[in-house]
Amino acid sequence: MAATATIALALLGAAHLPVVRARAFDWARAYAAQNFGIIVQADDLAYNLLTASVTLRNPSLSTAGEPPFLRADSLRVALDRDVLWGTVRIQRLDLVRP
In 3-state terms, what secondary structure has residue 77? Predict the structure, then answer.
């Protein structure tokens, strides 16, 4: 049991490494572009798998060839825990200086 908990904590910690966050951000940007036509740019992506939340620092959202329709110092999205099973529901959205 202790070995299982140790492995789970190690995997959780590894998921928050900068290289993993960068790959997750690349995937999320490609997903937004392909499925919604939204170009996402930001200085940094941070997430917390325990709280099901995502934060973008200095985000800019636009569509191809258009100026950004949203800019902010930060954008934080808290999701319902059902996101782990594929259901995306936003519980809270915080914008700092949009």
Answer: strand
Q: Name which of 12, 22, 14, 19 is nearest 52 in CA terms.
A: 12
d(CA 55, CA 28): 13
Structure tokens at 37: 């036509």
Distance between CA atoms of 73 and 58, rounded to whole angstroms?
A: 4
What residues does 96 pair with on adjacent strands?
A: 74
Q: pLDDT tens, position by position, for the chain (98 residues)?
A: 666 656 655 555 556 567 777 888 898 899 899 999 999 999 988 888 888 898 999 999 999 999 999 999 999 999 887 777 778 788 999 999 87
Number of H helices, E strands in the chain: 2, 7
Would the pTM count as exceeding 0.70? yes
